[in-house]
């Protein structure tokens, strides 16, 4: 799934904005960097995308707050007393690849018992326009629909195809997919917020109020490590093929982390003599330390890589990252920027930044969208 264009009106700090994520030849760019000062609308763009897709695609996150009247842009004069209250409109122009559509059809067939009343209608196209509005429209009973309700999808048959990623994950977890690799062919959205609940998301400690994920990175790495090192135990459902998959997960995370954070290394989930319960461990020269002692920069990078790897590598996804440079050394920012397009296959990354260095690299590559002057 690719996002070609977005139009936003009256949302948060944005009054009226249209962005294209295509290059000069009309192809969707694998990476787009949105740069600008505080208040220019960078985060609002990411939130607008998630608000539009969360109900349609079943994407759960607490890091994008439930919209309210305070999210309606009132203009510079803050006209709260207008006779006709303004409303929010977000329109997305999205495109699916041919093999992704074929995979979605197979996913629906394999998981039919999970949604017996929902059939996949015929759809001969690849592009769809989705619009989300706030306040939401009134339902047939005269009550307001939920805030995640999508106002329109055109053409209408496309609406059901957006459930492909959700059903693929459910089917994979229930071992219902005849071809487990189907989940690798169906994309979806994923948001990495700033650091508002980083400690909880990564280590499982700290406040959970703004957590995007119910499962921490620490828990994911522990599960991967246990499965990668366990002998074949049929009674616990750990077979040889699953063990091999876990070993691939751990190796993938190690290689990608080491590439971005060199010379520091991620060793995997380790059980040292002084820590028999085990933990994700790192190496820096002659020093070894667990995840709880890692820097926030190391935790941020590890979270990106882990969540884009487990339960299966995210491919053809729409990955939104809000200001990755907040905790990163400039050298790591540069290495992360260069590594992102290599995370998964066919992913589209939209990254916001305050970083002058990241802005300069994106500008040189033709991947920069200016939303304001960084000097102000």
Q: pLDDT average, as an integer?
A: 87
Which spans of ≥5 residues are poorly predicted at pLDDT below 50?
207-213
Q: How can the largest sheet be summarized? A: 5 strands, antiparallel
Number of domains: 2
Content-based structural category:
alpha/beta
N-to-C series of helices and strands: EEEHEHEEHHEHHHEEEHEHEHE
CATH architecture of the largest domain: 3-Layer(aba) Sandwich
Keywords:
376 residues, alpha/beta, Rossmann fold, 5-stranded antiparallel β-sheet, 5-stranded parallel β-sheet, 10 helices, 13 strands, 31% helix, 20% strand, globular
Describe the structure.
The protein folds into 2 domains: 2-97 and 119-162 and 316-370, Rossmann fold, CATH 3.40.50; 211-313, no CATH class. It is globular and about 65 Å long. The strands form 3 sheets. It has a 5-stranded antiparallel sheet, covered by helices on one side. Strands 7-11-12-3-13 form a 5-stranded parallel sheet, with helices on both faces. The longest helix has 22 residues, at 240-261. With 376 residues, it is of the alpha/beta class. The protein has helices at 42-57, 98-110, 158-161, 164-173, 198-203, 217-229, 240-261, 296-307, 330-339, 356-364, and strands spanning 2-11, 14-20, 31-35, 88-95, 127-134, 152-154, 189-192, 265-270, 279-284, 287-290, 318-322, 348-353, 368-370. Helix content is 31%, strand content 20%. Strand 8 and strand 9 (279-284) form a beta hairpin. The model is unreliable at 207-213 (pLDDT under 50).
């Amino acid at each position: 799934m690719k996002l070609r264009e977005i139009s936003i009106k009256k949302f948060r700090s944005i009054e009226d904005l249209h962005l294209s994520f295509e290059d000069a030849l009309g192809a969707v760019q694998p990476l787009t960097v949105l740069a600008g000062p505080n208040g220019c609308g960078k985060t609002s763009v990411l939130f607008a995308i998630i608000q539009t897709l969360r109900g349609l695609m079943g994407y759960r996150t607490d890091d994008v707050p439930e919209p309210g009247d305070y999210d309606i842009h009132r203009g510079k004069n803050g006209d709260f007393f207008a006779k006709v209250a303004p409303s929010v409109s977000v329109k997305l122009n999205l495109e699916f690849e041919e093999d992704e559509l074929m995979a979605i059809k197979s996913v629906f067939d394999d998981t039919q018992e999970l949604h017996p009343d929902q059939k996949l209608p015929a759809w001969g196209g690849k592009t769809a326009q989705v619009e989300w509005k706030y306040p939401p429209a009134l339902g047939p009973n005269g009550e307001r629909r939920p805030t995640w309700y999508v106002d329109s999808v055109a053409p209408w048959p496309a609406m059901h195809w957006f459930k492909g990623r959700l059903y693929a994950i459910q089917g994979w977890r229930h071992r219902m997919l005849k071809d487990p690799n189907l989940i690798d062919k169906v994309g979806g959205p994923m948001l990495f917020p700033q650091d508002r609940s980083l400690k909880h998301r990564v280590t499982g400690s700290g406040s959970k109020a703004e957590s995007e994920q119910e499962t921490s990175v620490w828990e994911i790495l522990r599960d991967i490590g246990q499965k990668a090192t366990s002998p074949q135990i049929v009674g616990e459902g750990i077979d040889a093929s699953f063990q091999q998959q876990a070993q691939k997960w751990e190796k993938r995370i190690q290689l990608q982390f080491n590439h971005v954070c060199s010379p520091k290394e991620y060793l995997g989930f380790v059980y040292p003599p002084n820590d028999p319960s085990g933990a994700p461990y790192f190496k820096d020269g002659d020093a070894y330390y667990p995840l709880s002692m890692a820097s926030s920069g190391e935790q941020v990078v590890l979270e990106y890589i882990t969540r884009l790897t487990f339960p299966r590598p995210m491919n053809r996804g729409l990955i939104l990252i809000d200001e990755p440079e907040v905790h990163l050394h400039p050298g790591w920012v540069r290495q992360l920027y260069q590594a992102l397009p290599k995370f998964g296959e066919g992913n589209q990354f939209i990254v916001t930044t305050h970083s002058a260095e990241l802005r300069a690299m994106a500008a040189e590559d033709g991947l920069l969208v200016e939303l304001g002057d960084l000097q102000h």
